[in-house]
Amino acid sequence: MSQKTEADIIILGVGTCGEDLSLRLLGAGIDVIGIEAGLIGGECPYWACIPSKVMVQAAAAVQEARRAAPMTGNPEIKPDWAPVAARLRWITGAWNDSTAVKRYAERGGTMIKGRGRLTGPRTVSVAGRTYSARRGIVIAVGSKPLIPRIEGIDTIDYWTTHDIMKAEALPSSMTVIGGGAAGCELGQVMA
Fold first, then answer.
1. Is 158 exposed, middle or buried (0-12, 13-18, 19+ CB in 10 A)?
2. For the chain, what percentages of helix, strand and coil (3-state, to nearest 5) are there?
């Protein structure tokens, strides 16, 4: 069976917003081709919003147990990252989006995995193959971790949110750069 190369709408970037828009359009009977170089759903389900809440929940449980000491004696609390790491792997499907790809196809969408490039007013090229949109192209390419321009950063073993979410063990100390939602949550968890 040949792969579809034309649809009403092409969604270039099927991260959080692109996936939601795609599924809404498909639900309205509009033919969609989604093009995604990374994981469908983007940063939120794999590297930020959802897994960070798992980490925050674990840190909150440790803190709550520590608050019990004045009331119940001295409970021994020794945080262990291994169960958190295992839960992160489970909650993200081990950073595998095959379930999301299947859901996309079940809703009637065509998913193209790869980096798309606009080649005309209604065409996108992915790995040398051209895809055409009858009605239009939506650009929803999203984000990825930004490495700050700090002299010498290229000489150290720094982590991004992707690295910490996949970590099997934690470093003995950490400095978090960035005060956005993910940076604040990670700083809170590590503290």
1. middle
2. 40, 20, 40
- For residue 109, the model assigns a pLDDT of 95
Kind of pairing between the strands at 6-12 and 116-120:
unpaired
What is the rounded distance in angstroms from the CA atom of residue 87 to the CA atom of residue 59?
Answer: 13
CA–CA separation, 19 and 38 (whole Å)? 12
Distance CA 99, CA 40 (A): 9
Pairing of β 32-36 and β 6-12: parallel
Q: What is the pLDDT of residue 73?
A: 77
> Does the pLDDT value for residue 74 go beyond 70?
yes
Instruction: Write out pLDDT tens, residues 122-147.
Output: 999 999 999 999 999 999 998 778 88
Residues contacting 9, CB < 8 A, separation 6+: 25, 30, 31, 32, 33, 133, 135, 136, 137, 138
- Rounded CA Rg of the chain: 21
* Structure tokens that stand for 128 in this block: 């040398």
Name the helix (H) or strand (E) containing 131: strand 129-139
Amino acid at 139: I
User: Which tokens belong to 33?
Assistant: 């081709």
**Contact assessment for residue 32 and residue 9, using Cβ atoms and an 8 Å cutoff:** yes
Lookup: tokens for 48: 């930020």
